[in-house]
């Protein structure tokens, strides 16, 4: 796995919105409060009993809105553990949860209005997947 190459900014799905947080807060309600462009925080959970690669996603209000997909979490976790800078913004709501925009190595993620609208238009289609392919995939 090569971590030294420049990575493109990408949109990532946030799943698990249907579950309640341990503190009783509702993830779907929190997603409704999120505004495109506001920061979100990624928190790796290596002690997560279901998935040691799990990465939780928290809103600007420090409430969990879900998790990065199991497909993307191992690679993203390796990037985070390597010490590379990762910046994230809320991109938009989706039926399954949400989309976030992630940028690496000092780049600032940009949430274009048309990207957020495009994600909403295509969220009904199972074949729509806005994530770029990792350069080393």
Could you explain the architecture of this structure?
- There is one protein chain.
- The protein contains three helices and six strands, in the order βαβββαββα.
- It is of the alpha+beta class and 137 residues long.
- Strands 2-3-4-1-6-5 form a six-stranded antiparallel sheet, with helices on both faces.
- A hairpin with a 2-residue loop joins strand 5 and strand 6.
- The relative contact order is 0.25.
- About 4% of the residues have low confidence.
Features:
single chain, 137 residues, alpha+beta, six-stranded antiparallel sheet, 19% helix
Over all CA atoms, what is the radius of gyration?
14 Å
- Alpha-beta classification: alpha+beta
- The H/E string reads EHEEEHEEH
Portion of residues in beta strands equals 25-35%
Biggest sheet overview: 6 strands, antiparallel
- Shape verdict: globular
Helix count, DSSP H or I runs of 4 or more residues: 3
Low-confidence stretches: 124-129
Spatial ordering of strands, largest sheet: 2-3-4-1-6-5
Helix content: 10-25%
Task: Summarize model confidence as the mean pLDDT.
Answer: 86
The CA-CA distance between the termini, in Å, is 9 Å
Number of separate strands = 6
Give a short overview:
By secondary structure, the chain is of the alpha+beta class.
How do the strands and helices of this protein lay out in sequence?
Layout lengths: L9 E6 L11 H7 L7 E4 L10 E4 L5 E5 L4 H9 L4 E9 L2 E8 L8 H10 L15
Antiparallel strand pairs: 1-4, 1-6, 2-3, 3-4, 5-6
